[in-house]
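Handout, section B. The chain below has 259 residues.
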Amino acid sequence: MSEQEETWRGRILAALPFVVSIYNVQFAIVHLQIFVSVAFIAASYLCGSIPFGVLIARANGVDIRQVGSGNIGATNVARACGLRWGLLVFGLDFLKAFSPALAAKLLAHRWGDDAFMLYDLPVLCGLAAVLGGVYSVWLGFRGGKAGATGLGVGAVICWQAMLVAVFVWLVVVWLSRYVSLGTVLGSLTYVASYFAEVIMLERVSPLDRQHITTSIFCGAVAALVIVRHKDNIVRLINGTENRVNFAGPRAGDKAVQRK
């Protein structure tokens, strides 16, 4: 072996531990990313699973699952316990989905330029929180109808679309007094507003790498809201849906047990 070959061989052998250490660091980073992602998604589901409607109604001496529509959401709590308690449930349900999605988004920006962390993890955490609200582990995988939780995630993903959806919800509920109709139309409005934002203002495809996960999420949650409101939709068609009465139960009234 020539002197030059010996020199190159020595350089390669000297550099080998450095190359191996870089590989090990990258390997560790990938595994840390997987662990952090799984932990955030699981924590988001558990956070979304907290049944605030059940807890607050129970604190007022009401089993909300046995009163009115039987739903654990803000509207039924407002009917059974009063407006302030319904608003409290709405706020907490909003926050239990908003907070995990926002935390994941802030983490992603600190992580670097990894596409999964930036574009996918906040959406997946938001989806986990929504599914936790609908299929709560604490209630035998039953729960709400994804209205407030979906709005909470929507505020993190695209606050402009969220404002448009809230405006539509307010107008529909004000004119019709049907919260279910406002929620369904609001969810569809959010999807339309999000796509309009991406296509018309950002001038990019909603199916590119940055937006495809969010686009799928928006469509999936809107579909979930509609499916969870299928009984309400049938009652709306039949003209038997309850109109909202935020005044709450009158003094002396007894909660009507659900059959």
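Note. DSSP finds ten helices and no strands in the chain. Compare this with the example in section A.
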